[in-house]
Amino acid sequence: MTSPRVGALLDAAEVEFADAGIETGSLRKIMRAAGADPGAVHYYFGGRQALVEAVLTRILLPLNARRRELLDRARMSTEPMLVDLVDALVRPDIEFAQVLQARSPGRARLIGAVYLRPADFVEATVAAHFAPVAQAFRPHLEAAIPHVPFPTISWRVRWCVFGTLGALLTHESAPFEPDPDDLIAELVRTLSAALAA
To answer: pLDDT category, 64, cuts 50, 70, 90?
Structure first.
């Protein structure tokens, strides 16, 4: 369980990194917003990189757990169709964007920035979190679009699916609220066609 002080630092870091960027966000602002002593980031996390990893883990764990849940649900009926797989990839981001926006406006930009412009260590953290999910999705994506070689599928998932999500989540007028189902349906239609093309 996270201590209140660590939780306050993570909350403040989410806001600052969403507003100013992961690499340029101010640790002083984070500590001030959290009501923490100067040096608290180093005391609790050891530095910026570990703080960023903790923020990303707090976001990516529930995102990827939701992806696995949706994949498992799709597999229970029959072999998942491509639209089911794409829904399982995009729905968690849109749902979680609503959660982040409810915490404070603009916070969903953090997810989008991770997908579009990650620093090297951020990309490594995201890849480590996403690797088991990618392995779980791979056989189903290959079965759903057997005419597309897997390296092409992988490239399209990275740049079509997550590139689109990144652009959407970083845009100031992204339409997540109040009901994201129309947005998700449009994304699933469009991105399924892109993957299968």
So the answer is: very high
E strand or H helix at 135, and its extent?
helix 120-144
Domains within the chain, CATH numbers bracketed: 55-196 (1.10.357)
Q: How far is residue 5 from each of residues 11, 36, 165, 167, measured CA to CA in Å?
A: 10, 7, 32, 32
What is the pTM assigned to this prediction? 0.89
- Measured in residues, the chain has a length of 197
Please give the Cα distance from 119 to 124 (Å, whole number): 9
Separation CA 57–CA 45 (nearest Å): 13
How far is CA 21 from each of CA 14, 26, 59, 144, rounded to the nearest angstrom? 10, 9, 16, 37
